[in-house]
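Researcher: I'd like a structural prediction for the single chain below. Treat it as a standalone chain; there are no partners to consider.
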Amino acid sequence: MNSDSSGESFAQKLKTLLRDERFWQVAFQVITLGIVLLLAAFFVGNLNRNLAQQGRSFGFSFLFNPAGFSIGESLIRYRPNDPYWRALMVGLSNTLSLVAAGIVLTTVLGTAAGVASFSKNWLLYKLSRLYVGLVRNVPLLLQLFFWYFAIYGTLPRPESQISALGLVFLNNRGVYIPWAGSAVLALLGIGVTIFAAVMAVFLWQWRTKLRIETGTGGKNQLMGLIGLGVLWLAFVILALQWTFPSPVDGGGVTGGLRLTREYVAALSALVFYTSAFVAEIVRAGIQSVSRGQWEAARSLGFQSGLVMQLVVFPQALRVIIPPMNSEFMNLTKNTSLAFAIAFPEIYSVANTTYNQTGRPVEVFVVLMATYLVMCLIITLGMNQLNRAVQFKER
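Model: Treating it as a single chain, here is the predicted structure.
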């Protein structure tokens, strides 16, 4: 009697458990995790068996062996007898220089092109739409070759190079621009510029909020912005000990900073290609703001520029920033295509490394981890920016 009762009770509990949605949510996660672990164990075991058949084992000790190959350009000191890990660091530094410059220039060009698509100027509007329509529909690899061979490859030889105001020189070996006196001063200048930009954004948002809430005011913040700009400009002009490129007899340039033909071609292609997508994101973000907001701002007597600056664009940022994050990550990953024009970014250096060492698995693990970390850092920064522009609701 008791046994039948306990059996019925267990069956009833089992039926109740199987009908519980929370049980199945946990169960599916456990099953999925088990499948993933089984697949990972299968692939790792298969990898170890294949390596054992070749008389090798998985490991990264080869990174400390001498690389034995030279790299065309480097932001850090490197010699051919340095270890492989240092060669990969050279590739990473070159990639980071492309990513940092690319994100800044893409933001400026893409935003300008997106805002220009709302211009009442017929020519500006058509140029914006033509640029977006043309560049978005041409593969990035083709654009890389276009900039490398058809634009920078057709520049004159150093003997007859082009000079722009005596400050910038262009020839088929690259572009020469004014630059800080040393690497330390250059890093200091970049750090101060980033700090000044953050402070400027903070002051601008403060001033905008005051003007929206009170209709007047913001003079103190405006004076702060002007003072910040003057201090930054004085620092940049006086403290960085600029060196200027100057031509030498027989052709060529001395002084300043040389941007190689491979670097400027890769940067130009990445910036113009990604900016076309950013322009569409900016245009969609601005269009997401209801017409009532435009009309309400105009009814207060604001000019078109102020309507965009004070009312429309701040609201559009909530829509613009999330997809911009994806575009910045795409730009980061697309830097690997610079390998096609012989720019020594990290994929190019990794390709030489695994060809020499016969360690493709380990090198690709390092490569994938590097791109993953770069994209996660970009996402972290953009998420912080996204939180800052969201409406604060009670």
